[in-house]
Structures are given as structure tokens and as C-alpha cells.
Amino acid sequence: MSGNSELAVRALHALAGAEMDVLERLYSRDFIFHMQVPDRPQGYAGLRDRALMINSALYDVSITVKVVLDEGDTVVTRWRGRAVHKGDLMGLPGTGRRIVVNGITIFRVHDGVITEEWTEFDALALLSQLRAESNVPVPL
Fold it and tell me: What is the reported pTM?
């Protein structure tokens, strides 16, 4: 893996673990965060908000990076996240259910830090797991 790929993968793991000190080193202060969740902070504040939300809503969080594509200043990752739902997430109180979500994150890197990010994840699959009355099949 190139330096940019390693940086992107490290960022995903730091986000999952709410490692704020690591995130501060990996992301530029004028970072641009493009996200699919409306009414949330943008930019670096949005990154911190997302990390803290993950930490407060989920435990036993793990990220498996399935694919990394690296071209110039852009790194594309396809990943799978697993966790247990312990607190408010997307308006739903903790259920204790194990969840699995798949997503794609695109990073733009400049001078060794992440300057821009786009993340898309399967929110419908996540919601159906959180709202299920019983265990539902999780995405493979």
C-alpha cells in the first residue's frame, strides 16, 4: 500500500475507535466533509461529531477494509463495519443488537493529510437491523 492508502485505512480505524488524537493528526483543519446525513456539522466539526456519535451509540466497533484503490491524491475504500448498538443512533435508542453496515469512503490527500472525504453507507440496511423485531440477516 502507498502512503496515501495507509493514511486512509488508518483514518477509518481511528474513526471507528474515536481516537481523536489520531484523527487530529490525519485530517487538515480546513477539511471538507461531504456526508449523506442531513443536519449534522460539516468540515472538521462534522468529523469530530461523527467520531463522538459512533463512540456514544456503538461498542465493540470494528472496520474491515475490503478494497483500497489509490490514484494520485485520491484513495477509494470499500469497507464493512460491525458493532453493537448501545445508544441513540439515527433517532433510535440502544437495542443491544449486533449490526453490520457496508460503505464506501473516498479520501483526497494533500501534503500527507486528508483534506476532503465522501462517505456513503447502506443506511437502509442499518435502519432495518436497528428496527427489526427479531434477528434479520445481515449483509455479507
Answer: 0.86
